[in-house]
Amino acid sequence: MITSARRAAVMVGVATVLVAGPAWAVPQQAPAAVSNSDLAVVRIDPEDTQPGGVVTVHAFVSNLGPDRTASPMTITVNLPRGTQPEGPYFPDDCQVSPNQRRVLCEFPAGLGSKRSATAQVPIRLDPDLRPGQTIRGSYSVSSPDDRNPSNNRTEFEIRVAETEPDA
């Protein structure tokens, strides 16, 4: 025979399970909803640079809208052969790949419509590059918010300048 005290304890236990639910059903924080944004890269060629010199790649990204971004975006700079990254970078938490051929820079959510962001990646040219030569790299942007991937990548060129005679 079940006593009324025991019946009450069982009912409280059942009610707790029904209210709290099983552990696997604990609500998880939902990811931010993506926005309707069109991120586009704009080609900017770095200055002509002498062999052994340093030049900064400006990886320029514009949000063509219509919405402000709701997710972070990553700008990836693929370095030309005959170069290597040389910080400091902007933003300062950019990450260099183990093979030194790629630099990834993450920007937070919130880039407004008709606004831009620029990753700045200084690179050093190999001292053995031939003056007059043109070297090519690229940069791209990625984000869950971007609705138009056709304008997410561009190439850039660096012309290897003549070395100045020693003064």
From TrEMBL:
Annotated signal sequence range: 1-25
Composition bias, Basic and acidic residues: 144-167
Region Disordered, residue ranges: 126-167
Keywords: Signal
Protein name per the record: DUF11 domain-containing protein
Native source organism of the sequence: Streptomyces katrae
Lineage: Bacteria, Bacillati, Actinomycetota, Actinomycetes, Kitasatosporales
